[in-house]
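job 3f2a | input accepted
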Amino acid sequence: MEVPASILLRPIHRLISRITAPTEPAIRTTTVQVLKIPPDGSSPQVVELHTIEIASEGNVDNFLVHIPDFRLYWGKHEGFSWRDIAGRTFKDQPVEELNGFYVGWKSFALDLMPISEQTGFCGDAFIAKLPLWENDENGAVYEDIPEAFVESPLYPEMLEAMHDR
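job 3f2a | predicted structure (165 res):
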């Protein structure tokens, strides 16, 4: 019995298609809405930021692989490099969209940015939201921060967690 060439070539075709198929980038960058807490005491506001890859920096947040790009607010050098994070999980909230893992960032570049009299942070501080399962193999998976967050009791709890760091 003669085997058709198409059947014989099928494994080779699969191998070639795997090699030439587009692959997902190693780091997933995205755009996310985060809460920006200004140093002047004005109301927090939701801003949209792109994420940038930071895994190779060796900073405290490198486990996230990519983070929102705060360099517009903190500068590209010490203000951005001298940052700290605090994370907090909130579950079983009465408003379902508030459930998640929240990460707050603050800079500790004391000589470069104004100290907020309201929060005590240097310059702007930021809070982002991740689903409860946090990361996948390409780094953090972000969700837009819910507008209900600022008016919820979670906001002062998150600020307190950021102060404790």
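job 3f2a | The longest strand covers residues 45-53.
job 3f2a | closed
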